[in-house]
Amino acid sequence: MVAYALGQLGNREATPALLRLLDDPDSHVRENARDALGSVGGPTAVDALLTLAADEDPELRIGGAHVLAKAVDSDPRAAPQLRRKTRRFDSVWTRVWPR
């Protein structure tokens, strides 16, 4: 609930607290912190989201990329990463499900 509220405020001063919540044992807290980082945006939040979007765990990777899209206007590094990930997904999808 705290992470969600911090995201709704959209204040970048909340970023350090949200980063700590990414390591919370409760998966719902971690998801809310991830989503809130996307809402808050900024370079530090985008750094964390880029790390999640590159994780080996598919759920973390997809969740990180999804939230990174929310932060695309806050850091110029976000858009190219999303384009790269989309091309990679399209390439895999085309091999699995040819047109």
Outline:
By secondary structure, the chain is mainly alpha-helical. The chain has helices at residues 2-9, 15-21, 27-40, 43-53, 58-70, 78-96.
Explained architecture:
- The chain is mainly α.
- The protein has a single domain (2-96), classed as Alpha Horseshoe (Leucine-rich Repeat Variant).
- 73% of the residues lie in helices and 0% in strands.
- The chain has helices spanning 2-9, 15-21, 27-40, 43-53, 58-70, 78-96.
- The longest helix is centred in the last third of the chain and has 19 residues, at 78-96.
- The protein is globular.
- The termini are far apart.
How far is the first residue's CA from the last residue's CA?
Answer: 44 Å
CATH topology: Leucine-rich Repeat Variant
Helix content: over 70%
Question: Roughly what fraction of the amino acids lie in strands?
Answer: under 5%
Count of distinct strands: 0
Low-confidence stretches: none
Structural class: mainly alpha
Number of helices: 6
CATH classification class = Mainly Alpha
The major beta sheet can be summarized as: none
Rg over CA atoms, rounded to whole Å, is 14 Å
- Kindly state the mean pLDDT as a whole number? 83
The tally of structural domains comes to 1
Global morphology: globular
- What CATH architecture would you give? Alpha Horseshoe
CATH homology group: Leucine-rich Repeat Variant
Q: Spell the H/E element sequence.
A: HHHHHH
